[in-house]
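Translate sequence into structure tokens.
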Amino acid sequence: MELGATVCTPAAPKCGSCPLARECRARKEGRVDEIPAPKPRAARRDLVLVTARLVRAADGAVLLEQRPREGLWGGLWQPPAAECADGREVAPRAAGELLALPETVALRPTGEVPFQTTHRAVVFVVFEAGVRGAGAALARAGRRWVAPDELGDFALSNAAKRVLGR
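Result follows.
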């Protein structure tokens, strides 16, 4: 029996139905409202990510990159993104540098996309650009061009879907 999840809960312990009530130290000491102590909540960490919706003019394909296996949204695909220590005020040139984009990609700011996770408030500072030609220089390791009708084949977080406007 899982006593901690069903009987000895921090908010409302059910001592009358507990098979260990006679041996319970908390009950003997009159501390059932204190034990077990609630788990401390994880510290909330706000995060600002610069991201770019890059669309290839020839076929409407979108550039995606795969996130690292560990961490937030591990292994999922998203538009190119990077954490921004400078907050929300990012110039297009600085955004291009953060995202390791060539200077020939002219980014335009399009706004912010807020997203809430359990322990984080994430704000995506979104830029976009149309890319002429094949865009081969952009599709480096971990990045690839994806046709609009193939986006459903890629594991995207809900946050990435919002950034892409899907």
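Note: The CA atoms of residues 115 and 158 lie 9 Å apart.
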